[in-house]
Amino acid sequence: MFIFMILGLLAGIQAQGTPVFVQTGKDLRLDVQEPVVLQGLHLLTWSVNNSINVVKQVKGTAEILEGYKSRIEFSAEDHSLLLKNVEKRDSGYYRARVSAKTNSDVAEYSVTVLDPVSGVKLTVKSCSSNSTNVTVICSTEDSLISSTFTCDKQTCSHEGGERAEIITPGASLDVHLECGSVICNHSNQVSSTRDIQKIEDFCIKPEERSGVGISFYRMKIYVVSTGLFIMVCAVISVHVVEKLKKKK
């Protein structure tokens, strides 16, 4: 029981600090949040999860913990800490503390390293022939959402949908309508991907497409036929006039 109390206390402590989210593979700079003036034997430390002092600075001299020399950089001038090419293991509670007669915390961050979200694909599940109800499905590698839109020839309104229960922690998946297009958006705190398709492309019926084609084809026949008729009439008229002139 005592162990669980200690773990709960540590979790509460680590939950403190300014929340910061960063994508895996990126660099993250942590600045001190209060002015720092080191005098005499004052000691500045950057610690991780209240257990590891990755940086120590005293009398203008800074020392980086051996296992972190390739992973972080420290500025002795402004006391900032740079995490390089972050990985999931770099998530945690980061604290900068000045130790003198009393301890003073000058920076606290709760860092979370996240992978970028996966891509999305927007597909049409169904499109009714009468009321033009369109059901679109937005899918990703790790989750699925279905959302229904009712469309007429000019506008579409959202009718609801179903969201899958399993979604990557920290990520959200959304389907919405914007400027006549269906947009499927997959995002978290560090990245986002989307797929966009025009709603009118979903709702045009096959017979309407063929009807447009037939009308255009008929128009072409009408124009060509009219032109040929006029040409034939003109030739006949010229021939008749020539014959009349010869008789005279």
Task: Give structural notes.
By secondary structure, the protein is α+β, with helices and mostly antiparallel strands. Helix content is 24%, strand content 42%. The protein has 3 helices and 16 strands. A 6-stranded mixed beta sheet has the order 1-9-8-3-4-5, with no helix packed on it. Strands 10-11-12-13 form a 4-stranded antiparallel beta sheet. The longest helix is centred in the C-terminal third of the chain and has 42 residues. The radius of gyration is 36 Å and the shape is elongated. The N terminus is likely disordered.
Cα distance, first to last residue? 130 Å
The overall strand count is 16
Classify the helix fraction into a percent range: 10-25%
Order the strands across the largest sheet as they lie in space.
1-9-8-3-4-5
Q: What is the 3D shape?
A: elongated
Task: Spell out the helices and strands N to C.
Answer: HEEEEEEEEEEEEEEEEHH
**Class per helix and strand makeup:** alpha+beta
Strand share of the residues?
Answer: 35-45%
* Unreliable residue stretches: 1-15, 209-215
- Radius of gyration using CA atoms only: 36 Å
**Average pLDDT across residues?**
79
Question: In this structure, how is the largest beta sheet organized?
Answer: 6 strands, mixed
Task: Tell me the number of helical segments per DSSP (H or I, 4 or more residues long).
Answer: 3
